[in-house]
Amino acid sequence: MMATAGRVLGEDQDVRADLATNGCRERPAFVGPIGGAVFACLHLPDKPARGAVVLCSSIAAEWKFNYRREVLLARRLAELGVAAARLHYLGTGHSDDGEITFGAMVDDVERVRDWACGQADVEHVVYFGSRLGALVAAAAGRATGSPLACWNAPTTGAAYFREVFQILRVGRLAGSGTVDDMPAAQDLLRSGQPLDVLGYTLGPALYLSASTLSFADELGSPPRRVNLIEIGDARQAQQAAGYAASLRDQGFDVAASSVDDGRSWWLDGADAPRADEHREAVVTLVEETAIWLAAAGGGDALHGG
Amino acid sequence: MSIRDRVRRYIIEDLKWPDESSLLTDDFSLIEGRVLDSIRVLSLVQFLESEYGIEVLDTEITSQHLDTLARIEEYVNMKLAQSGRA
């Protein structure tokens, strides 16, 4: 082991001392080689884990907005006997630098998944994804057909970015009142230039690599078990229910539910962190998601639980 | 119900219009007057898409199209005409 400023580096990973929370342990680590290490945090139960969940966050303001909720989800999963791994994609957060592409995000998840399974001594993995992270989660578990739960999964990458572009325009319009000097967002990205979305940079590589994807394609072959949870107003819930029905028609095993909460993750993300975790909608969201994931992720009967 | 009346009802009921409904006239400035914040403008855009089956391009999110009920109706009619559903 080699000590450097602020962290201890191993050959391919750096495991910091466990932190204790609610009887569970939290193990932050840098996974991967120096210069390409992904920051991860593994939430471990106080007993041998029955399985593992990998949490795939969204990006930029949505990542920030959702951060606390995902911490709470991971902690609750550990309390329920399932190991839960969170991560920062390369080029974001505490992770080393790297170009953010969809493929790189999936690679990061798979690397952390393998590390987490080794640390927790489990083989059975399920996935969680929020917003763009839902596409990542779908792709990461496609080869094994692993179950996944999602918050506000986009139907396609194009639909996701279209909403981001709308948010950018709306933010400018409601702020300065003028958008006349703004170029078309996708033209800018297609020309290889980054886009500033209300203070967050969206790189052309991510846009180009993810905008042609669809959630259904990333799920792979049916029947795959999916829990689609839509957080929003009644109109969004209705649209999500319609999409869930179309996935069922394609043979997927889809559960769908909604949580009434009208906030915009991207627009509200600018104000994060916000202490909203005690609101009933958030408590219900985290609890119901954790219970579903724990049931789906508790497949390693070897350890009981 | 006309487009402008349907949108007016949406703004009053769903976006929680804070004043007397009679103040929300056809020419009342929603955006340039800073009446709708960014989240409400986004909600309005998404409402127009789902209610009228149109796709609001990001380049079409301008005060020229969305600032007043009259402009919104004109914009929606234009989109419906473009799709052959006017």
How are the SSEs placed, and which strands pair?
The complex is a heterodimer of chains A (305) and B (86).
Chain A lengths: L1 E3 L2 E3 L3 E3 L3 E3 L2 E8 L6 E7 L7 E5 L3 H20 L3 E6 L13 H19 L4 E6 L1 H9 L7 E4 L5 H19 L9 H6 L4 E3 L2 E3 L1 H7 L4 H5 L5 E8 L1 H16 L3 E8 L4 H5 L10 H18 L8
Parallel strand pairs in A: 7-8, 7-9, 9-10, 10-13, 13-14
Antiparallel strand pairs in A: 1-2, 3-5, 4-5, 5-6, 6-8, 11-12
Helix pairs in contact in A: 1-10, 2-3
Chain B lengths: L2 H12 L23 H15 L10 H4 L2 H14 L4
Give the key terms.
heterodimer; A: 305 residues; alpha/beta; Rossmann fold; 2 domains; 10-stranded mixed β-sheet; two-stranded antiparallel ribbon; 41% helix; disordered C terminus; B: mainly alpha; Non-ribosomal Peptide Synthetase Peptidyl Carrier Protein, Chain A
Mind explaining what this structure looks like?
- The complex is a heterodimer of chains A (305) and B (86).
- By secondary structure, chain A is of the alpha/beta class.
- Chain A folds into two domains: 12-155 and 223-298, 3-Layer(aba) Sandwich (Rossmann fold), CATH 3.40.50.1820; 157-212, no CATH class.
- Chain A contains ten helices and 14 strands.
- In chain A, the strands form three sheets. In chain A, strands 3, 4, 5, 6, 7, 8, 9, 10, 13 and 14 form a ten-stranded mixed sheet that branches. Chain A has a two-stranded antiparallel ribbon with strand order 1-2.
- The longest helix of chain A has 20 residues, at 60-79.
- Chain B has one domain (3-82): ACP-like (Non-ribosomal Peptide Synthetase Peptidyl Carrier Protein, Chain A), CATH 1.10.1200.
- In chain B, helix 1 packs across helix 4 (69-82).
- Helices cover 52% and strands 0% of the residues of chain B.
- Chain B is an all-alpha fold and 86 residues long.
- Chain B is built from four helices and no strands.
- The chains are: A alpha/beta (305), B mainly alpha (86).
- Chains A and B meet through helix 4 and helix 8 of A and helix 2 of B.
